[in-house]
Amino acid sequence: MADENEEVTQKSSGKGLIVVLIVLVVLLFAAVGVGGYLLLSSGVLNGQQQLQNQNQTTTEKADAKDSYKASINDLVLNITNAKGREKLMKLSFAIKSTEPTIESLVEEYKPEIVDAVIAQVSSRSSEELLTVGGKALLKEELMDDINSILNEVSAENDDIQKNSIKQILFTSFVIK
């Protein structure tokens, strides 16, 4: 009989321990939830988020203010493929710059810029130009060439920024 009482006591104390653990876990979750609610309602977390949003908006506005665009549209160029067969390419692109007068500069020196584009494109095969890497390389080299042209023609004018071309964006790129 004494053995049966000991077994009953051991079984009931194990159940009690599980119940206590469950209650502690529930209380822990409730405390974390209440703490999170208080942080959100007091604005501590919202203030940081609003500060991040304000910084991002300010950066985007600064980028938009410091960015000017000009376009070169509808150039039709002759290129060859790897087998030496000729193909036609239609190319349009936008020039993104930090120079406010970029549009008038591009218009004034368009023949020099188009000549540089023709030289760069004709030195490549159509297969190379159709790859992502080939397009990226063409963008970089066009940006360098156009910056060189504008730096050269504006060498005497200190009002025009040097190396102001920051990006070339293809708006039309067709090879047929």
TrEMBL record:
The chain crosses the membrane at residues 17-40. It comes from the Bacteria. Keywords: Cell membrane, Cell projection, Chemotaxis, Cilium, Flagellar rotation, Flagellum, Membrane, Transmembrane, Transmembrane helix. It is a single-pass membrane protein. Pfam families: FliL. Controls the rotational direction of flagella during chemotaxis. This is Flagellar protein FliL. It comes from Halarcobacter ebronensis. The lineage of its organism: Bacteria, Pseudomonadati, Campylobacterota, Epsilonproteobacteria, Campylobacterales.
